[in-house]
Design goal:
Structural class: mainly beta
Distance between the termini: 57 Å
CATH superfamily of the largest domain: monomeric porin ompg
CATH architecture of the largest domain: Beta Barrel
Low-confidence stretches: 1-25
Number of domains: 2
Strand content: over 45%
Number of strands: 22
CATH class of the largest domain: Mainly Beta
Radius of gyration: 30 Å
Shape: elongated
Mean pLDDT: 87
């Protein structure tokens, strides 16, 4: 009986102390301005000499550090000095307290470290620091993208089937907006396959085989961008193309170059690129040249009203050792959101090959209407 009473009493103490511990853990942060005003909420991050504080009353605000009289956070942060966000500039990880122009970071396993608040470069929550700055993230993690599919089926006098499938992936590191971009990796793949069968009318004697028209267009590319600063980056890219409509069995491109981002806002972004590459072409008939060429390209995307997304890419590809073997490609797409991650996509692609296999057209145009599912 005594053991039972002791167990109940201890259980009661635990139940009483549990809400208190939870309330202390979830207690809001308090931001006190130099003029005496104060807000309650949560410290989000800091960069560029300012802290980002989220309050239920004022929403998310950005406050210069020199306007902060005192701020203590219940969240564990990594504190970095001014300069590139790297392990070399790490002051420490732990609880953060800003008061009277100084910032102190302390934890149970290290003594407190104090720096001048004006020397603060970045304030990043510990899990984000471990992933985005300390590179504790696997290559398979952090990808965003979409899968698109469409189909056209006709069963009548003529039988026709056309299928389109594609996937587009992108991975930027860091993936948070308040840290400068370090690298970006993209991967795109699209396949269009179609077959149309038309009987000979009127039929001959003996019977003639039906006319068969085949469409098979495949494209895949990958690119890695390494940033020098928020606007300039070096790149390495590769691309593979097959286009039955132009007599092209396989085209391979391997190149390196540079890129520039002249426009970068919350609504739109424009990238301009130039690279030099080795290009190998294999046709159904005719010569199979080895080319040294350049891609002059641009990528543009813009967010439109009602969450519509417009994307456009273009590239001109001259060949320096065979001037007549130049090519060009332009693609435009409009993504219309339907429900949660599902969207309708409308895209058009024009592919020009100046020197295709004999008897094939130089131009190949596709229009695809499909359903897109956002992976993240």
């Amino acid at each position: 009986m005594r053991q039972l009473i002791t167990f109940i009493l201890l259980g009661g103490v635990s139940l009483v102390s549990m809400p208190r511990a939870l309330s202390q853990k979830s207690a809001p942060d308090v931001l006190i301005f130099t003029n005496g005003d104060q807000l309650t909420g949560h410290l989000e991050s800091a960069s560029g000499g300012s802290v980002v504080f989220k309050s239920d009353m004022a929403g998310e605000i950005t406050v210069p550090v020199d306007k902060v009289k005192e701020l203590r956070s219940a969240t564990t942060f990594a504190v970095l000095r001014k300069g590139p966000p790297s392990k070399a500039n790490l002051v420490g990880k732990g609880d953060v307290h800003i008061a009277d122009g100084n910032l102190t970071v302390s934890s149970s396993n290290q003594p407190p470290v104090t720096i001048a608040a004006k020397d603060l470069g970045f304030l990043v929550d510990t899990p984000t620091y471990d992933k985005q700055v300390d590179h504790r993230v696997k290559f398979t993690q952090g990808w965003t993208g979409a899968i698109t599919g469409g189909a056209t089926i006709v069963r009548s006098t003529d039988d026709a089937t056309s299928l389109t499938a594609g996937i587009s992936l992108a991975r930027t590191m860091p993936s948070v907006a308040f840290l400068p971009l370090r690298n970006r990796t993209t991967f795109n793949l699209i396949e269009t396959y179609g077959k149309s069968t038309s009987p000979v009318i009127p039929q001959t004697d003996p019977p003639s085989p039906p006319d068969v028209v085949k469409t098979d267009i495949f494209h895949a590319d990958a690119e890695r961008d390494q940033y020098f600063n928020p606007r300039f980056y070096a790149l390495a890219d590769t691309a593979f193309d097959h286009n039955f409509s132009q007599g092209l069995d396989l085209q391979q491109i391997y190149g390196v170059g540079i890129g520039w981002t002249p426009i970068q806002t919350a609504k739109q972004q424009l990238d301009l690129k130039a690279e030099i590459h080795y290009e190998k072409q294999k046709f159904q008939t005719g010569p199979n040249p080895n080319l040294i060429g350049t891609i002059f390209g641009e990528n543009y995307h813009r967010t439109l009203p009602h969450k519509l997304l417009f994307t456009e890419t273009g590239a001109f590809i001259p060949a320096w050792n065979h001037p007549s073997d130049y090519s060009a490609i332009v693609n435009g797409a409009l993504i219309l959101p339907v429900y949660k991650r599902l969207s309708t996509s409308l895209s058009a692609t024009d592919n020009y090959l100046n020197d295709p296999s004999p008897g094939f057209n130089k131009n190949s145009f596709q229009f695809v209407a499909g359903v897109t599912y956002a992976l993240r």
